[in-house]
Design a protein that fits this description.
4 helices, alpha/beta, 21% strand, 43% helix, globular, 153 residues, 5-stranded mixed beta sheet
């Protein structure tokens, strides 16, 4: 890890329109593993904290996370589309909820595709796959971010 890499658990988050996948890593930042899938709260008022963000805050506290890494869906050509805009809006609100814990964005190109492929290779398909693909995508996001931090040394 880089000299600036502080030891501690990080949460990885895959924000979808319907569900939010959550992963965590060990305090040394070596391996990401799945934690939970949280349903998105589309019903809360503008001033209220959405239930999914409250649950992310609870998970961050429970796991004593020092940072939260959220996947930013970037197109293969490197441009940000509508989905990236939705994630940026989500992250702005999430950062307020998680203050003073930092929330960082990480390029998540193809994370859900890779996660789905890996689950299929393990024989997880259909309804069972839909139940865990968001967690698996969060693992891909966090592991990619951790590996990038290691390469910076």
């Amino acid at each position: 890890m880089t000299p600036r890499f502080a030891r501690g658990v990080r949460l990885g988050v895959d924000v979808g329109q319907v569900r939010v996948g959550v992963a965590k890593c060990d305090p040394d930042g070596i391996l990401a593993s799945p934690v939970a899938t949280v349903a998105r709260d589309q019903q809360s008022g503008e001033d209220a904290i959405p239930a999914d963000m409250a649950e992310l805050a609870r998970l961050a506290d429970e796991h004593e996370a020092v940072e939260v890494v959220v996947g930013l869906p970037v197109a293969l050509n490197g441009r940000e589309g509508v989905a990236a805009g939705h994630v940026r809006t989500y992250v702005q609100k999430l950062a307020e909820v998680l203050t003073p814990r930092p929330v960082v964005l990480s390029d998540e190109r193809m994370s859900t595709v890779v996660a789905s492929r890996r689950l299929s290779e393990r024989g997880v398909r259909g309804r069972r796959q839909r139940a865990v693909v968001d967690q698996a995508a969060a693992v891909e996001i966090l592991q990619g971010w951790l590996d990038a931090q290691r390469r910076q040394t």
